[in-house]
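Weekly structure sync, notes
Attendees: PL (lead), two postdocs, one rotation student
Agenda item 3: pending single-chain targets
PL asked that the sequence for the first pending target be pasted directly into the notes so everyone works from the same version. It is reproduced below exactly as submitted, 326 residues in total.
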Amino acid sequence: MRILLTGATGFLGNNLLRMLLDQGYQVTALIRQRSVPPALAGIDADLRQVPLDSPELTAKIPDDFACLIHCAAQIQIGRTQLESSRRANVDSTRILAGICRERGKRMIHVSTVDTLAYSPDGQPKTEQDREPRKPPATYVVTKTEAEQVFAAELAQGLDGVIVHPGFMLGPYDWRPSSAEMMIAVAKLRPPFAPAGGASVADVRDVATGIIAAIERARTGENYILGGHNLSYFDLWRLMAAEAGVPPPRLVLPNWLARGAGIFGDVKAKLLGRETNLNSLATAMGQLRHYYSSAKAQAELGYTVRPVAESIAACWQWVKDMGWVKA
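Predicted structure, written out during the meeting:
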């Protein structure tokens, strides 16, 4: 069976690509780069260089694929890059979903738990929970819009499924993305941890869940692929223990988080570019992003490994890449 994959150079996409090949699937990966990037070096896959908004896209897609897994995304937790994120996250979803509908192919749209509600009381949310909404960061807005255009294609007959990964840790985080948190804990040794929390998943478990969705997911359904619901305070202490550095001792109060976010916004205006420290990012960090993966466990056979394994794999990858000295 041939799988069409976008985002193969990203964290989840790269793990997916390797796992699909290991399980005997044929994979055609659509990539932007003209040369083979390090994330794809030595991988035996059909790599086709074409931007997802290119007029050549349809011609570059093979006829024999059975399912498209759309992992490619632009992540911006802030207010900037809205138009480029719409092109990357919304327009690409519309184009690819239209192609799959016209050709009668299944499409798995990789969204995020950030399109779902956060949990004020700490109780895990489900696929149906959309309120209260998260702060309108560019990533949240555009991934929500992408789900809306996907839903429109479903209404016209697309055989489509949406998955919502949680906060992922593990190997092959080339950029890095979520590994930045591990690097920050190891290098900066912050005394404060954000007051919120996350559903911490292993990227390898999420990839396994997506592969199961190829044949087992029901058309038109959403599936949360989350993990252990941990406060950032507890997660950072586990990360610090793995890295062998002092852990945070305090939880960041809301007033200090707001102040740091405003400082970041002012700095962005002075520099002319937005950084990871901004008011929307700090607001997100103070929220509990807790979710239930019960539906995926029941229908897809989704499993969650111990969080210590995911943290250890992330730390090993960080060391292997030379981002932090052991």
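Discussion points:
- Residues 130 and 292 are 14 Å apart (CA to CA).
- The chain has a mean pLDDT of 96.
Action: rotation student to compare against the earlier draft before next sync.
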